[in-house]
Amino acid sequence: MSVLKKIEAKLEMMAPGDREIGQYIVGNPDQMLRLSTAALAAEIGRSQSSVVKFSQKLGYASYQELKLAVSEAKAQEWQVPAGVIHGSIEVGDSYQVILKKLIGSKLLSMQQTVAANSERIISRALEKLDGARRIHLVGVGASSLVARDFSYKLLKLGRNVLHDSDSHIQMANVSTLGPGDVLFALSYSGASIETLRIAELARKRGTTVIAVTGLHDNPLSRVADLRLYTIADEERARSSSITARDAQLTLTDLLFILLVQKQPDANDYVHNSEAAVSVLKADRSS
């Protein structure tokens, strides 16, 4: 996960002094790389020791290690393709500008979401899902739509999946879970009360809780055993959870593809599902 994204996600929870340092680094990473601890401290009006302590609070032994991490983050920074605009959609934007901004926001959200989750954590989530006796998918609003889509995909692989858009039924279903089961909870804010209460009950029953949520500290992430992170710029998209939904779908689609690879008879299950559905499609030859 990019150190710049980590800092940005933690800004609101930082003490005022640390927030000033963090805001400068996030807003001016190139300049920061050229500054010593003393120069950075002078630039923002803080003490040299506060810069060093800021680096240590992020898990780095020194300011030089933090600079190295920022340098690596800049090197890996994804560039929006030529012709695509990433920025706030304004009321006066033309149709073509809106298209370019929307596509730019979606692409950036998906790319940053993939970058925020290491292969190790994805593999751990995959292992839990693959070995689960039952998988319960939960989410409200737009997250519920993503949960439903993922449930359909898992059912195609013959997995024992539970999903319902009604939170009361979700809670009742979770009351039957236990060790060996998995609760897969989606909430970008991590504060949706229905999803949180369901996750808390699942945790009490010994069920593994996998949360798909934002980078910021939130109640759902604190309940979860495993956390998968989504990056979404809702201020720029300015619409109902568009980029958050895209970010969630990126992760669930990735997990589905990895499960298909891992499951020896996956192709048989998918083929049987397609064959069963084909009889419901109109015969265009007649």
UniProtKB/TrEMBL annotation:
Residues 125-265 form the SIS domain. GO terms for biological process: carbohydrate derivative metabolic process. Residues 1-77 form the HTH rpiR-type domain. Gene3D superfamilies: Glucose-6-phosphate isomerase like protein, domain 1 (3.40.50.10490), Winged helix-like DNA-binding domain superfamily/Winged helix DNA-binding domain (1.10.10.10). Transmembrane segments: none annotated. CDD domains: SIS_RpiR (cd05013). It holds the Pfam family HTH_6. The keyword Glycoprotein does not apply. It comes from the Bacteria. Keywords: DNA-binding, Transcription, Transcription regulation. This is MurR/RpiR family transcriptional regulator. It comes from Mesorhizobium helmanticense.
